[in-house]
Amino acid sequence: MSYPYVLLSAAVSLDGYLDDTGPERLLLSSPADFDRVDAVRASVDAILIGAGTIRADNPRLLVNSAERRAARVREGRPEYPLKVTVTATGDLDPGAKFWHTGGDKLVYTTDKGAERATHRLGGAVDVVPLGSDLDWRALLSHLHDVRGVRRLMVEGGGTVHTQLLRQGLADELQLVVAPLFVGDPAAPRLFGPGGYQPGRLRLTEARRIEDVVLMRYEPTAPGTGPFPAAADRHWLRTACELAALCPPSPTAFSVGAVVVAADGTELARAHSREGDDPVVHAEEAALAKIDPADPRLPAATVYSSLEPCARRASRPAPCSELILRAGVRRVVTAWQEPDTFVAGADGRGILVKGGAEVVVLPEYEDQAKAPNRHLLG
Ligand SMILES: NC(=O)c1ccc[n+]([C@@H]2O[C@H](COP(=O)([O-])OP(=O)(O)OC[C@H]3O[C@@H](n4cnc5c(N)ncnc54)[C@H](OP(=O)(O)O)[C@@H]3O)[C@@H](O)[C@H]2O)c1
């Protein structure tokens, strides 16, 4: 399953509220920040909001700058990003500005909600039922595969943001903190209670914009089991970047590997032939940097740009075996080992037989292959 890059965008008060309970929308951002948001909108393929925000704010959700819209058209993109909403009830006001401004609109809902939404909107809008419940992975996959969306901006509200973050589906959070208090417990909060991924997010930027502060965060906690989380993509990309650092060899692949604890702490990273060892493999070198008694290993994930090896001549144990011996039970990789040096290598098979989950993210295959082009003909 491939998903778009998911960017959550929100502004909050100092006490963490998205809005107050008054009839008008509370303006939290500053003028320059509204313009920044406009630029982000212009950069994406689609913008999603929950039906609650349509009902509360009646937003138009447009790219306001004519220059930015013209630039989109010059680049061969639609003038406005696709507008997307989610609803279970299908209770959508056909008079809302959302439907009468901008470009294409799309509603994701349940089978039951679809009847009501179609009835209310009169068939003029694309309504996609996703079963008895709305599954966010199915929604993202549909947006990617059917609507060609590669970058999705999510502009709330809190119910939507909370689900995407808790399910590990947000690639990035762009959070603006405004210097005011709401102080009303009945007002909507950005993030609701519940089980979030463990650990700390990575702060990638902090910027003052007039009197507000923009903070950008990336989740770091790996997914669990077969389900890829957004952080899995970030770490696999890091592994691919490490592969590019390998001294090239005519007789071995260039591979990068990272070992990450369940809370997103990086335990070790390495690449093939690093240091003074001309035959060391990336996963082997990374695991060698970790105390074998480290209690975080059983819940850790190994990211490797190439499937861990199944057989090798240069060392007694292949990397798939070393991973199992280290107690790691989850591996994320981009590329299945070709027959270049070992025919029918099946590191994945060894890992699965040993009880490990192997997740393949083929969207990184090209990046994993790039430092190995000379071996691939
Ligand atoms: N400050 C900011 O940056 C910002 C941004 C956006 C919004 N807001 C504020 O946030 C408030 C609205 O937030 P909110 O949390 O109440 O609403 P919301 O997240 O915009 O929408 C919630 C609604 O979306 C639908 N929905 C969400 N998850 C779903 C799922 N898994 N399956 C099916 N439908 C689903 C449901 O619609 P149905 O009820 O139709 O089933 C649900 O009631 C407003 O006060 C608004 O001003 C602030």
TrEMBL record:
<dbReference type="InterPro" id="IPR050765">
    <property type="entry name" value="Riboflavin_Biosynth_HTPR"/>
</dbReference>
<comment type="similarity">
    <text>In the C-terminal section; belongs to the HTP reductase family.</text>
</comment>
<dbReference type="InterPro" id="IPR024072">
    <property type="entry name" value="DHFR-like_dom_sf"/>
</dbReference>
<dbReference type="InterPro" id="IPR016193">
    <property type="entry name" value="Cytidine_deaminase-like"/>
</dbReference>
<dbReference type="Pfam" id="PF00383">
    <property type="entry name" value="dCMP_cyt_deam_1"/>
</dbReference>
<dbReference type="InterPro" id="IPR002125">
    <property type="entry name" value="CMP_dCMP_dom"/>
</dbReference>
<comment type="similarity">
    <text>In the N-terminal section; belongs to the cytidine and deoxycytidylate deaminase family.</text>
</comment>
<keyword id="KW-0560">Oxidoreductase</keyword>
<protein>
    <recommendedName>
        <fullName>Riboflavin biosynthesis protein RibD</fullName>
        <ecNumber>3.5.4.26</ecNumber>
    </recommendedName>
</protein>
<feature type="domain" description="CMP/dCMP-type deaminase">
    <location>
        <begin position="230"/>
        <end position="358"/>
    </location>
</feature>
<dbReference type="Pfam" id="PF01872">
    <property type="entry name" value="RibD_C"/>
</dbReference>
<dbReference type="GO" id="GO:0008703">
    <property type="term" value="F:5-amino-6-(5-phosphoribosylamino)uracil reductase activity"/>
</dbReference>
<keyword id="KW-0521">NADP</keyword>
<dbReference type="GO" id="GO:0009231">
    <property type="term" value="P:riboflavin biosynthetic process"/>
</dbReference>
<dbReference type="GO" id="GO:0008835">
    <property type="term" value="F:diaminohydroxyphosphoribosylaminopyrimidine deaminase activity"/>
</dbReference>
<comment type="pathway">
    <text>Cofactor biosynthesis; riboflavin biosynthesis; 5-amino-6-(D-ribitylamino)uracil from GTP: step 2/4.</text>
</comment>
<comment type="function">
    <text>Converts 2,5-diamino-6-(ribosylamino)-4(3h)-pyrimidinone 5'-phosphate into 5-amino-6-(ribosylamino)-2,4(1h,3h)-pyrimidinedione 5'-phosphate.</text>
</comment>
<dbReference type="InterPro" id="IPR002734">
    <property type="entry name" value="RibDG_C"/>
</dbReference>
